[in-house]
Amino acid sequence: MFDIPKQKREYWNSESAKFLDEIKKEEIIHSEDKTSSVDDNIVVLQPISIESLYEYDVDCDENIVGVSYIKENEKYHINNGLWQKVEKCIDDFYKIGNIKNKISKDSLRKIVLSWSFKRKKEQISIDLTQYVENELNKLVKEYVVYFPISYLETKSTYHLVDEVFIGVFPNKERNDLLSDLREDTKHAFVYTKLEGEKQFVINKAYEQCSLVVDVIKTCYLTFYSDQPKICLDIENNIKRLPINSCFVVEASSNGLYVDKSVNIHCAKLDESFIQILKEHCINDYSQFINRIYKEQRTELEKVLILAIKTYSRALSQDNYYDRIVDLCSILDSLILSDDKESIRQALKKYVPLIITDNAEIRDCDCKNIDLMYDIRSKYIHHGDTKKYVTKGDLFKYSLIVFNLITRLVMIANNKKCSSMKEVINIIDKKIKDALNQINFEDELS
Description:
By secondary structure, the chain is of the alpha+beta class. It has helices spanning about 5-20, 80-95, 95-100, 105-120, 130-140, 170-175, 200-220, 270-280, 280-290, 300-315, 320-335, 345-355, 360-380, 390-415, 420-435, 440-445; strands at about 25, 50-60, 65-70, 75-80, 140-155, 160, 165, 185-195, 245-250, 255-260, 265-270. The chain has 16 helices and 11 strands. The strands form 3 sheets. The chain has a 5-stranded mixed beta sheet. A 4-stranded antiparallel beta sheet has the order 1-4-3-2. Strands 9-10 form a two-stranded antiparallel sheet. Mean pLDDT is about 85; it is low at about 45-50.
């Protein structure tokens, strides 16, 4: 049940009563059609009375600056200073966590506008805050939202992240709702239970479930080399067909040859699958996801969410050069540098230090970063693909990005840094302290 705090309730019930005098009303007069048809076969359509309609006025920046409500033959206007008061009321209500976390701001706006125009036109007696609470309680319900993962099979249900599950759809409903899916496998679904307005819940569930799938994909596919191609994506995100077909007709006859190759193989979600995830830091990612949906996100967490999503997309890139472009863009977005230092130099300076304490691995990572950026530069600027990229090369480049994201997820989890700038500053201080300890006096004397 929604309950607007008493202080807000008293204030906005008083203020909203003043809205009504400022709402302008005008009659809509339809001119009668006095023309007669010159052809009996031409049908003349008469104007239809509009039952109800909202019309929004927006400025050049797409901000709403006014709204009109049309019902039957009357039009009501909220604009100028009155709209600012109404929008302030909507913003104030939307700061209430129990509202913001369960419906969209657009839906709340429609509720407030609905009360304003109904109170003006129909003289309803209910106060604004009570009307808002009543309408919210009608809109908000508890839903379980399922997203199919088409090429993943499972017989069990797994719980890797709080409130998000991966498993099969309930059997009692499956036959009616999933008739379009293949019947020879048990399709996996990622799903969660949320309370709120239906479309708002769907969008929120998709954001949460897709990030969970991106993390699973990241921890699994990064290390899935030299194996049949598999697809770990929510069905909405799949951009390609699972089968490649080619029809060949012999020119001198009517013979037809059909060549079909499977583009995607099904993966099995079982205990061995889960073990691979655990070996590649799924627990750290789970801790990260559990927190970001319960607490306010830091700057570091926001940039990491984008990095994870981009990395997941990169893993699905068939073109190795396009994948390298995505990998480099992730490094660019994560590592900040000042104007005096090139991005490549900044990456070679900071990335190896964040990833590992092993000097030999750091040297290797520096060389691979140089190679990655050489390939990207030639490909982007000249379309040059002369530099042959092997699966082994791509794995080394992907591993650098995976290790960087994973290490930063761990840093975000320990809450010592809230931004990449803080991470960079810590490294710079360590470097400066180390340089200050260097003493050549004994060596040169």
